[in-house]
Write a structure and sequence with these properties.
Elements lengths: L2 H20 L11 H12 L5 H12 L1 H30 L3 H24 L4 H25 L10 H20 L3 H39 L5 H26 L3 H5 L1
Helix pairs in contact: 1-2, 1-3, 2-3, 4-5, 4-6, 5-6, 6-7, 6-8, 7-8, 8-9
């Protein structure tokens, strides 16, 4: 069998391999397999390629499907493991029972179904993983929306105008998040919205703290409070602001579990 005939026989394998790589989901996994396609292209263009080169390329193309299946399974399993950890952290830190119920009754069953699809190598495994992650983002967004509808946080007490402005700013980002079809984008925008909520709250609380400190100083000067009491109350107020300030950077870095801890 001559060199041209060997190449002609290998072309269908190369075409099928290209089709397989082009349909890999998540798309981020495609790059690691394009080297094999490039090597095959060089083989076809190389004059007088040896039989050993032919066997090497055919072997690589033949093993591509199994390698892709493993890479996809590993990636989707890793995403589900991360999602489960995020769901657990969010449930533990949930401000309202509605979020816990949504995570338990909606998101967790979707994760279980996605795990089964991944284990079975189902064609819709990627879509099932994405659906679980989107619903997780939806649960978080609904929870944050409910927070905006409830009583204002401590820092906004007696300042309805400031709370209304802050609530509007956060609601705008929530609306943008809900428009995102990609789970990464939706979760990222939720984190942006939650970080903004915390920043607005911390800024408002800091204003209250500054005013409270002035009041405490005045009370001490008038003899209505002791220095010890002043220090204790200041420390308490500063501690609250420090906690809020520490959460915001974690959210901006996408560290949801750390922010909820």
């Amino acid at each position: 069998e001559g060199e041209p005939q060997r190449k002609l026989k290998a072309i269908p394998d190369w075409i099928e391999a290209r089709r397989t790589v082009d349909t890999i989901r998540p798309i981020s996994l495609q790059g690691q397999f394009r080297g094999t396609l490039s090597a095959a292209e060089k083989y076809f263009l190389q004059p007088m390629a040896t039989e050993q080169q032919h066997n090497d390329i055919v072997g690589k193309l033949g093993g591509l499907s199994a390698s892709i299946e493993k890479a996809v399974r590993d990636e989707l399993s890793a995403r589900l493991d991360a999602l489960e950890a995020d769901v657990k952290a969010s449930s533990s830190a949930a401000r309202m029972n509605t979020l816990r119920i949504a995570l338990q009754d909606v998101v967790t069953p979707l994760i279980d179904a996605a795990k089964k699809a991944v284990a079975e190598g189902s064609q819709d495994a990627f879509e099932r993983v994405n659906q679980a992650r989107l619903e997780y983002a939806n649960a978080l967004l609904d929870d944050l929306t409910d927070s905006l509808k409830g009583p204002p946080p401590l820092g906004f007490a007696n300042d309805a105008k400031r709370w209304g402005e802050a609530r509007a700013h956060v609601a705008q980002v929530i609306d943008l998040a809900k428009e995102a079809n990609d789970p990464e984008q939706r979760i990222s925008r939720y984190l942006e919205a939650y970080a903004l909520y915390l920043k607005e709250t911390a800024d408002a609380l800091r204003t209250r703290v500054d005013a409270a400190k002035e009041t405490l100083d005045s009370q001490v000067r008038l003899g209505h409070a002791t220095v010890e009491k002043q220090k204790t109350q200041r420390d308490q107020l500063n501690e609250v602001v420090a906690k809020l300030d520490a959460i915001e950077p974690k959210l901006k870095e996408g560290k949801l579990r750390e922010a909820h801890s």
